[in-house]
Amino acid sequence: MPQFVFLWTDIALWAMVLVTVLYAVHVARSPNLRSTWYRVLTDAPAMCSAVVLSAFVMIGLVDSIHYRAALPPVANAPADAPKAYSPIVQSALEGLMENTTLTLPEARFSAPLATRQLNKESVLTPEGPVREFKALVHGGAHLANPDAPRGGDIALRVLAGMALAAGVALLVLVLMVTVLSRRRASWRAAWSDLLRDNCNIPLRAMWFTTLGVLLVMGTLAGMASGYHALGTDQTGNDVLWQAMRSIRTALVIGSLTTVAMLPPALILGISAGYFKGRIDDVIQYIYTTLTSIPSVLLVAACVLLMQAFIDNNPSLFPTSAHRADVRLLMLCLILGLTGWAALCRLLRAETMKLRELEYVQAARAFGVSHWTIMRRHLLPNVMHIVLITVVLEFSALVLYEAVLSYLGIGVDPTMNSFGTMIDGARLDMSRDPMVWWSLLAAFAFMLTLVLAANLFADSVRAAFDPRSRAFRIRRHPLAAASARRAA
Amino acid sequence: MIAYIIRRLCYGVLILVGVNLFTFLLFFAVNTPDDMARINIGGQRVSADAIARWKTERGYDKPLFVNTQAQGTEKWTDTIFYNRSVPLLAMNFGRSDSGHDINTEIKRRMGPSLALALPTFVLGLFASVVFALLLVYFRATRLDFWGVVLCVVLLSISSLFYIIAGQWLFAKTLQLVPYSGFMWGWDVMKFLALPILIGVVARLGPEARFYRTLFLEEIGKDYVRTARAKGLAERVVLFRHVLRNAMLPILTGTVAALPLLFMGSLIAESFFGIPGLGSYTIEAINAQDFSIVRAMVFLGSALYIGGLLLADISYTFADPRIRFE
């Protein structure tokens, strides 16, 4: 049994999962929220991006279980000796991928699926030193001859991976039809409805997305079973592995930051809108002051201070993993505490509108206390703004992290993130031969994650924001107008 | 109107005082001058003498807020807070921790920053508005749909990738422009063409999508229906009526961003080696030069407040219905 280690961001991330589950239960119980979320559920782009997002979230969550592995007992140790644990904190993802090419580093750059290094290196032979492309230690290690054509071997591995993926996808399909058949007359009716896309929730599109995600994962897994699927970087680390580890960092930054933003924004925003007068003036002054400072500089200043603090107190952090983790958490807090002003302004405006409504007036006339009015009557009615902000901010923050890490004020340099990947590979494109795989991997992973988050967020906003709902209705006359023009 | 402007200016000064106090607390109270000295001199083992000398050279050896050893008003003025904060309000930034005068540096670097930021801003605005209008003209067609898809994809790509891909394509593969660098004179075109192009493309996605919704909102209004009803062509409705009315919020919104152009762009300037204020800030961040970072924070907030004031005033010119009491 390994010894589990709870890093701060792990706790926060799992707490968020718990909150999400509780919120889902709450939604299921409230008819109003249920009908709003149903709008999201029936939106095909949103549900397809939800499938993609959940794949990312799963990888991120597996990467958020940290432990120290138990070491094998020393030979002829006494029976009652305390169990020894490895000094290295590793995540469940690392544990799962142990001894695959993902976690076994090479020495230098190597191209995707290569068996030899990209650059020549001096090798000592009995005849003296020779410059040659050294064979990789782990990539293609199963091959008897690294220079023999290996297209067949790769194709076989990719096919195996894809077959596995297709199998899992079929299983998902059967599961979907079984669940659907409870609402349909028979299994056969469910099957034909799914095939003809005759369901409210776009199950067919979701299944095709699942198939696509699984096929990509299967292909990568097939290639990674014997080779470095996306090559290695300057210090020989597997690029696919770096990209996978970066997912967790992106998720943490994207979600925890908005959570850190909520307490000041909610408390100050609602009280400013509710009390008006002096309190409103003071709160407005605070957030105007904060927004008038250029955000990158404010973040830079805070991060520099945090850096100085960490450098001056090295004894507070037992391992480098702890230090990197605390730095990530602090970065989220800093981003949240410097970014709450916009949300606060929105909440203040909405509260000002709500406080004049009859039910709030009635509550006041009944002598309900300020605190109870704010908690019971105002807070639930501004939650949709909070939700929209949380979802919309996610993708912006993932992009922001890359910029901050590039500027050197982002996450700890030892922590994998898309920003550190780009930062490390910024000169790679001008190398000869060109090294494109690090940047391409970061680009593809980031684009997929951010695009999916954006599409999902747009749908949530459309469902929760009444104004954009009006937009949708107006689309029909416009369509008629364009048809007339075409005729 | 004049009274309103004066009141807003006073409020602006009040906010600047707040910014000043906040940054001072951030930089000096949390991190003592001793820590700064240690970081700047470098290394863990720094002698107390070296720290004392470093502090005296930069005037950090005084107490933070109250000087108990001084007499009269000097009690308050002979402190780090007074020496470092009050000159800022007069836009006198003093010397950086490495000993250079920040004001001359800012004057020297403002030009290159503006040479990059202003064309990027103007062209970017133009391109986004044109693209958004195009989408609105072909609204509810396939072109509109795929245009919006393109916008969403464009805004999902990190700005770093635009720069890296642009440098690779135009500087390395096609060899049309140099990789990076800066030089005044005719060469400035050569050096700035790529950063400006990338800046425009990077802004296109989010802005065109936003402007499209603005235009669509405008198009649902009554006066547009009237214009259509009296038989105007769709083109005339769009360009004469909708564009004019929708441009008001866009233009007044952009006025607020104008002063901040002086600050330059952090990322673009550092990638393309343009010696502007953005790269100055980055160098300061990397060298942990707190004086420069503080100066830039202050300059940035002053410009931001100026921008807000400009935006308010331009509202009254753009829309006579708005009046300030």
What this model shows, in words?
The complex is a heterodimer of chains A (487) and B (325). With 487 residues, chain A is mainly α. Chain A contains 16 helices and 5 strands. Chain A has helices spanning 8-29, 31-41, 44-62, 92-96, 151-181, 187-195, 203-224, 239-275, 277-292, 295-312, 320-355, 358-365, 370-407, 418-424, 437-464, 466-486; strands at 3-5, 66-68, 90-91, 116-125, 128-135. In chain A, the strands form 2 sheets. A 3-stranded antiparallel sheet of chain A has the order 1-2-3. Chain A has a two-stranded antiparallel sheet with strand order 4-5. In chain A, a hairpin with a 2-residue loop joins β4 (116-125) and β5. In chain A, α1 (8-29) packs across α2, α8 (239-275) runs parallel beside α11 (320-355) and α15 packs across α16 (466-486). Chain A is globular and about 95 Å long. Chain B is mainly α and 325 residues long. Chain B contains 14 helices and no strands. The model of chain B has no long low-confidence stretch (mean pLDDT 82). The chains are: A mainly alpha (487), B mainly alpha (325).
What keywords describe this structure?
heterodimer; A: 487 residues; mainly alpha; 3-stranded antiparallel β-sheet; two-stranded antiparallel ribbon; 16 helices; 5 strands; globular; B: 325 residues
